[in-house]
Automatic annotation (TrEMBL):
Domain Peptidase S1: 46-267
Protein source organism: Streptomyces natalensis ATCC 27448
Molecular-function annotations in GO: serine-type endopeptidase activity
PANTHER family: ACROSIN-RELATED (PTHR24252), HYALIN (PTHR24252:SF7)
Record's protein name: Trypsin
Entry keywords, A to Z: Disulfide bond, Hydrolase, Protease, Serine protease, Signal
Statement: the UniProt record of this protein carries the keyword Membrane: no
Length: 271
């Protein structure tokens, strides 16, 4: 299973999502047009989520290769390593910020300047990367990242423009949901050796499934409130077997594990 996951590359595009049970595949860029409402009118979105309000998660970024991200500084986006191709100068990515609706005329669109993929990333663990932007985004707040594992528990918020069900379409409107923490031992029962417990933190409704991130949410933050009531990032959307399946929690990069590396990388990018 793991080697299968490793064989997948982003360039195999969205069709591969259907084939890939366990996949690090980001979604395609949003093509435009509203997603079709489900017959019966049940508004279960993002796999079990609801629409976020404009300004509710102002640090959220949509990346043009079909991933999410969060503003780490005014000109650096924290995303997943599997969303980028490597490190170095890169002007091919567009970051869209400041809007819940990607078609909103107030969207801030900024090009990338450089990418820094986690040193030593090889498809297992270490799923983080930084994107240095061509211009600083001044009027939006950044998202603090967890420096230790104290708050790696409880209920987490997930958000993104990814698929609202396995094999589903990318979304125009930002969707959000709440998922409970799943401990490493339990998550290892679901995924065995595929899981890298020190590098990864799991979350999801184990018994029922139904709520999860999905393809195209990758790179986006999983977060909660800290003791002062401020948002704190504890995870980065990474992978899962399918989406929202019972017994198969979402797997996120454990941000606290990489906090120092992320800071060092940002310093290197001059952020
Ligand atoms: N790798 C996917 C992406 O690129 C994210 C999958 C998350 N899956 C999950 N079941 N939580 O968008």
């Amino acid at each position: 299973m793991r080697s299968y996951r490793k064989l997948l590359t982003r360039s195999t595009a969205v069709g591969a999502v259907a084939l890939a049970a366990v996949s690090l595949q980001p979604g395609s860029a949003f093509a435009g047009g509203a997603p079709t409402p489900r017959p019966g009118g049940v508004h279960t979105k993002v796999v079990g989520g609801t629409k976020a309000d404009q300004g509710e998660f102002p640090f959220m970024v949509r990346l043009s290769m079909g991933c999410g991200g969060a503003l780490y500084t005014k000109d650096i986006v924290l995303t997943a390593a599997h969303c980028v191709d490597g490190s170095g100068p890169n002007t091919s990515i567009t970051a869209t910020a400041g809007v819940a609706d990607l078609q909103d005329s107030k969207a801030i669109n900024v090009k990338s300047k450089e990418v820094l993929q986690a040193p030593g990333y090889n498809g297992k663990g270490k799923d983080w990367a930084l994107i240095k932007l061509d211009k600083a985004i001044d009027n939006l707040p950044t998202l603090k990242i967890a420096q230790d594992d104290k708050l790696n528990n409880g209920d987490f918020t997930i958000a993104g423009w990814g698929a609202d069900k396995e094999g589903g379409d990318q979304q125009r409107y930002l969707l959000k949901a709440t998922v409970p923490f799943v401990d490493d031992a339990t998550c290892q029962k679901a995924y065995g050796d595929q899981l890298t417990p020190g590098d990864e933190i799991c979350a999801g409704k184990l018994d029922t499934g139904g709520v999860d991130t999905c393809q195209g949410d990758s790179g986006g933050p999983m977060f909660r409130k800290d003791d002062s009531g401020a948002f704190l990032q504890v995870g980065i959307v990474s992978w899962g077997e399918g989406c929202a399946r019972p017994g198969k929690p979402g797997v996120y990069s454990e941000v606290s594990t990489f906090a120092k590396d992320i800071k060092a990388a940002a310093d290197k990018l001059g952020g």
